[in-house]
């Protein structure tokens, strides 16, 4: 069974078995069918109790099969998870109010016993019937020192988890060779080149993951691997003190810490939650701001004539084009003579009304429709025009990275940098957001955007 399938199975079985154990506890406690007065207290809390037990199982590694390889590991993790779940259940039943005081405390205790037996039992039986298959990860280790060799040995010892170490790269150029000039082997694995060979070696050997053991010395290599368009690999580093100060731990192999550098994607629940918040907030703002939209549209029609809205092609996620909506703020055919150009301070093409709309970002309000359609999010890299995207992708290393997420009405670059800052600097802000995005950061950016809107700062 594949690892993901096991996790889904474990979650479903644990959710069912925990409740079966509690129901059985009620039957034992009351010697048959439990009184509705007592049993209804459990039924009212059953969804919450299920989530509590699953959360406890997650905390103690029941859904990480690499942490529960032996029967003893399973017993220990299940014991801790079920104990925490039972204690939380007792606390919830006490704090939830008088309606739930009839939840039998003895049933909670018996539920702990039955739950432990069921969670340990099905996992032990499963281990005897089948094995979990991890997806293969072809690993390239950059470095040849003691830590690099130890890491390679530990990964090889965990080959059943899918790790396949294909070799080493020297941390120095040119790589060390034997006296005959042939590549050497280290602990039975080939030395495939130096740091500047990382891209070609990763592509030639279909590498999934590169682990760099000397990150400070090889900063240029790490940057190249992260933004390289010809390869798509996960990049981890064995952190030194500098990385520890500025980053967070992502994994451990034996006692060797690892930090992932290339993590851009967020968990599915985060993407789904952000999308739901985007849609709900966009609909609410459309309703609340509908008078402002109507007045702005009428003002544009009166002062500049038809049309009130301006549609422009922009590049969205995965560089797919979409139509971005704005209120028209420039004279007709503003780029007829010049072609595509960026707006500048004191731009003569912007009308007097357009300048007011831009100062308070009212011209951006129609992008609420883009958010509802799914073209954009509230927060993300600002969408750029395909004409400029082609130039930036060709001239700026890593520019293609910013198209891995939905573009935003506002972003970290818009609230942190000057409106006319260089595309290179905007890219740095975009990548900072992409690699560290979370809901509190989104909220902070929206608050900063509101401040910018109210003060009219940075408009063009």
Describe this structure in words.
- The two termini are 57 Å apart.
- 51% of the residues lie in helices and 12% in strands.
- α2 packs across α3.
- By secondary structure, it is of the alpha/beta class.
Q: Report helical residue fraction.
A: 40-55%
Distance separating the two termini? 57 Å
Count of runs of 4 or more consecutive helical residues: 16
- Overall number of strands: 12
Report the order of strands and helices. HHHHEHEEEHEHEHEEHHEEHHEHEHHH
Note poorly predicted spans. none
Q: What number of domains?
A: 3
Overall mean pLDDT stands at 82
Strand content: 5-15%
Query: Order of strands side by side in the largest beta sheet?
Result: 2-1-5-6-8-7
- Tell me the overall shape: flat
User: What structural class should be given to the helix and strand makeup?
Assistant: alpha/beta
Biggest sheet layout: 6 strands, mixed
Radius of gyration: 29 Å
Short key terms for the protein model shown above:
two-stranded antiparallel sheet, 6-stranded mixed sheet, 12 strands, Rossmann fold, flat, 16 helices, 460 residues, alpha/beta
Short account of what is shown:
This protein has 460 residues and is of the alpha/beta class. Helix content is 51%, strand content 12%.
Chain-wise SSE layout:
Blueprint: H1 3-30, H2 36-59, H3 71-95, H4 105-129, E1 137-142, H5 146-157, E2 163-169, E3 185-186, E4 189-190, H6 198-204, E5 209-212, H7 219-227, E6 234-237, H8 241-246, E7 251-253, E8 256-260, H9 268-288, H10 290-304, E9 309-315, E10 321-327, H11 352-359, H12 367-373, E11 377-379, H13 386-395, E12 408-410, H14 412-416, H15 423-436, H16 439-455
Parallel strand pairs: 1-2, 1-5, 5-6, 11-12
Antiparallel strand pairs: 3-4, 6-8, 7-8, 9-10
Helix pairs in contact: 1-2, 1-4, 2-3, 3-4, 9-12
């Amino acid at each position: 069974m594949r690892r993901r399938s096991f996790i889904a199975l474990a979650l479903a079985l644990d959710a069912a078995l925990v409740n079966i154990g509690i129901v059985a506890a009620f039957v034992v406690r009351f010697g048959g069918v439990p009184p509705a007065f007592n049993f209804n207290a459990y039924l009212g809390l059953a969804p919450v109790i299920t989530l509590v037990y699953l959360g406890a199982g997650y905390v103690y590694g029941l859904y990480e099969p690499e942490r529960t390889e032996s029967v003893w590991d399973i017993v220990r993790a299940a014991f801790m998870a079920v104990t925490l779940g039972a204690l939380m259940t007792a606390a919830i039943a006490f704090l939830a109010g008088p309606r739930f005081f009839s939840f039998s405390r003895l049933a909670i205790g018996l539920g702990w016993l039955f739950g432990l037996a069921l969670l340990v039992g099905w996992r032990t039986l499963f281990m005897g019937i089948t094995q979990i298959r991890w997806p293969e990860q072809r690993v390239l280790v950059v470095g040849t020192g003691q830590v690099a060799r130890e890491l390679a040995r530990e990964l090889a010892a965990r080959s059943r988890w899918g790790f396949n170490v294909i070799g080493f790269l020297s941390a120095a150029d040119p790589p060390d060779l034997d006296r005959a000039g042939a590549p050497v082997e280290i602990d039975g694995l080939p030395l495939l080149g130096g740091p500047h060979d990382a891209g070609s070696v990763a592509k030639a050997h279909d590498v999934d993951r590169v682990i760099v053991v000397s990150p400070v010395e090889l900063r240029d290599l790490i940057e190249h691997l992260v933004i390289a368009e010809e390869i798509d690999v996960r990049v981890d580093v064995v952190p030194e003190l500098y990385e520890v100060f500025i980053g967070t731990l992502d994994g451990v192999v034996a006692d060797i810490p690892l930090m992932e550098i290339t993590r851009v994607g967020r968990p599915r629940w985060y993407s789904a939650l952000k999308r739901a918040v985007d849609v709900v907030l966009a609909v609410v703002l459309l309703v609340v701001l509908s008078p402002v939209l109507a007045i702005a549209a009428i003002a544009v029609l009166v002062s500049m004539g038809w049309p009130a809205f301006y549609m422009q092609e922009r590049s969205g996620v995965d560089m797919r084009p979409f139509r971005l909506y704005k209120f028209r703020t420039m004279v007709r055919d503003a780029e007829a003579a010049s072609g595509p150009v960026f707006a500048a301070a004191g731009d003569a093409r912007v009308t007097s009304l357009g300048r007011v709309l831009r100062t308070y970002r009212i011209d951006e309000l129609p992008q609420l429709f883009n958010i509802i359609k799914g073209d954009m999010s509230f927060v993300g890299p600002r969408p750029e025009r395909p004409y400029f995207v082609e130039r930036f992708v060709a001239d700026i290393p890593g520019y293609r990275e910013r198209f891995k997420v939905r573009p935003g009405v506002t972003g970290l670059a818009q609230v942190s940098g000057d409106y006319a800052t260089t595309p290179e600097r905007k890219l740095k802000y975009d990548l900072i957001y992409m690699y560290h995005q979370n809901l509190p950061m989104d909220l902070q950016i929206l608050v900063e955007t509101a401040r910018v809107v109210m003060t009219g700062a940075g408009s063009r």
